Amino acid sequence: MARFKKNQNLHPDAPLLFEDHGRPVTRREFIRQGMMAGSATIATGSLFNLIQPNAAMAAIAPDLEALQAQIGCSLVPSGAGTSVPFICFDLAGGANLAGSNVLVGQGAGQMDLLSTAGYSSLGLPGDMLPGQVQSASGNPNTLNLSQGVGGAVLDNFTNAELNLIFHSDSPMLLGILERAITAVASGRIDGCVIPARSDNDTGNNPHNPMYGLAIAGSRGSVVDLIGSRSSISGGNSMAPAMHINPVFQPTKVDRPSDVTGMVDIGDLTTILGPDDVTAVMESISRVTHKKLQLGTIETGLTNDDIIKDLIRCNYLKAADITNRFANTEVNPSLDTNIVGPTGIFTTAEFNGSSEFRKTASVMKMVMEGYAAGGCITMGGYDYHTGDRNTGENRDLRAGRCIGACLEYAALLDKPLMVYVFSDGSVFSNGSPDDSANAGVGTPGVVLGGGGKGEWTGDSSSTACSFFLAYDPVNNITTWDNDPAVELRRQIGQMSASASVVTSANPAANNVNLLVNMVLLNYMALNGSISPGDLSAYTNAFPNHGLGVDLENYIAFGQILPP
Questions:
Q1: Sign of the alpha-carbon dihedral angle for 345, 348, 350, 355
Q2: For residue 176, how many C-alpha atoms fall within 13 Å in the half-sphere facing its CB?
Q3: CB-count burial class (<10 Å; 0-12, 13-18, 19+) for 561
Q4: Which helix (DSSP H) or strand (DSSP E) does residue 97 occupy?
Q5: Could you give phi then psi for residue 373, rounded to 5 degrees?
Q6: Residue 252 and residue 41: Cα distance in Å, rounded?
Q7: Chain CA centroid to CA 279, Å
Q8: Which residues pair with 252 in a beta bridge?
Q9: Which of 112, 154, 172, 431 is positioned for an S-S bond with 399, CB 3.0–4.6 A?
């Protein structure tokens, strides 16, 4: 039994306490119950990998370039900035994604409808089921986003504005549409839902795909990966053990100052000017090199040449980062696309929400190519509180953050893959929460239950994950680029009673393999694999465990130009 008064409007940051849950003692437990923010992190190989060059900037001095080659100091990682940017949302605690947000169907896809009882367990009452047309009077508390949208309307309770079909009353969809205005208007967003079980309320689910990006060859120009916590995985959920490589262990970043701190060169530019600062740093690098040659620097470890080369490389990278960022603004709070009168967030929203600041910091790093991918943990998604409005408002904020990432990609004219997952899920016993919405149609909307079913407990069998892709140039196509073939927007299926059919594919009952399936789709979007040639994937992930029918688990074709 939840310790909440029914239908009270909990703030999205309010902690969740339950009689049937133990008192939180670990960091993960505090995050899933909303008692601690899921901070954003950056995963990086080591201190020496923090500084890498931008090809648009001038090169460092010729003698230092020669030294770089001599000691094997790689300032430009292979493939940096050439992959599809990737951002994942780790909703800690067990969020509802299926049915009330993204539609999940039986074997024939999203619109292969479930039973009335099945939808009820997913929080949808009998008068709000997909495939129905609402009566003229309707329910005054529902949002009905799809009404009047034209080609996006499938019926009164479905919405296909993102091409992936959502319930029209989805708070997550509302948040996405509120922020991703340019991206949605383009019609070039698409997505895929994957019904798959995962354990409830635990960070031990190996959901996190971040290390897999690095295995697939994705690199950033400053760091390789960004995540959501200072954990091994960079998020709330663990990464598959077979993927973990200490070279890419996360480093914490959860605010704009953490982003600027990675390329901060202090006050030297105000004293000397950018060009002179670069000259100073190059001189320091030369002096250090000479001292190491003469053996006058005590490393504290050994006089081994390897240690000396690492020190040389570190100073070279310090000179390089000064050269690249002396005239570059990386602070997300100063990016007018992100904050301000014409930005994705108003100044008041940005200053008032740590989740918005965290999202802005991660998406700035990823979309500018400073990192190849990022994971944002959002806490408090264990929301079976005996009402509906608590979960609705947390899903709404997650949607706003997802939409912000898609919109930023559109404003920068760059592709993006967004992956959303949670540890387990929730179910409803069908009891309606009739609390009303407040401020519908405005960014300050506060959602009530709207007549939908209260969340009353955990359920791993109703879980799913989904991803969205944005192509800045073309409509997203099928894997084999055959316009006569329907896009694969669902991989796997649920039963009529709204339980994951675990025999549908290898990933349906194995979170490790779910990660591998997501990475398979990521490589397809990158163009790293092509129909008939999946060797790049099987070489990178030889123990993928997905069997021989890999092409059946790929939703879309390449979104980067060949």
A1: negative
A2: 27
A3: exposed
A4: none
A5: -160, 155
A6: 4
A7: 39
A8: 41
A9: 172
Q: Across the chain, how many H-helices and E-strands are there?
A: 15, 13
Encode pLDDT of 19-60 as tens digits: 555 556 565 555 555 555 555 444 433 333 333 333 333 455
- Determine which helix (DSSP H) or strand (DSSP E) holds 182, and give its type and residue range: helix 181-186
pLDDT exceeds cutoff 90 at 240: yes
Whether pTM > 0.90 for this model: the answer is no
- The backbone torsions φ and ψ at residue 5, rounded to the nearest 5 degrees and listed phi first, read -75, 130
The pLDDT value recorded for residue 514 is 97
Q: How many residues are recorded in the chain?
A: 562
The beta-strand segments (E) located in 315-463 are 373-378, 416-422, 426-433, 452-458
Compute CA distances 456 → 16, 187, 397, whole Å. 13, 37, 21
- Cβ neighbours of 152 (radius 10 Å): 18
Structure tokens that stand for 104 in this block: 């999940």
pLDDT tens digits along 67-104: 555 655 655 566 677 899 999 999 999 999 999 999 99
**What secondary structure letter does DSSP report for 552?**
G
Strand order, beta sheet including 158-162: 153-155, 158-162, 164-167
d(CA 237, CA 28): 8
419 has which bridge partners?
A: 88, 467
pLDDT digits (tens, 9 = 90+) for 326-351: 556 789 999 999 999 999 999 999 99
Provide the angle, in degrees to the nearest 10, between the axes of the packed helices 354-367 and 389-412: 30
Burial level of 191, CB count in 10 A (0-12/13-18/19+)? buried
